[in-house]
Specification:
3-stranded antiparallel sheet; single chain; alpha+beta; 4-stranded antiparallel sheet
């Protein structure tokens, strides 16, 4: 799973994402949970979008999918979270 925003998020939204999903890597617009994915809760996602003051897009990924952050760092989806490659 990844969470994406059109614009960089504020500190309040970042803290809320980390509180809900645990450790994440990000480029301030894309957030990748490093731990096993919890159940996605609509109320929590609404809180994140409200804190960020912008829509949040959630994408589900299959094992082996690769995501590239703005700095060029790549991560591969696994059953236990994202792994840097």
């Amino acid at each position: 799973m990844s969470i994406q925003f059109e614009n960089p998020v504020n500190d309040e939204a970042r803290k809320l994402i980390e509180q809900i999903f645990g450790p994440v890597v990000s480029d301030e617009r894309t957030f990748l949970p490093m731990a096993r994915m919890p159940i996605i809760d609509q109320i929590a996602m609404k809180q994140i979008a409200n804190a960020a003051k912008q829509p949040a897009t959630v994408a589900l990924h299959a094992d082996g999918d690769v995501k590239t952050l703005a700095d060029g760092t790549q991560y591969r989806a696994s059953a236990n979270g994202w792994v840097r490659i």
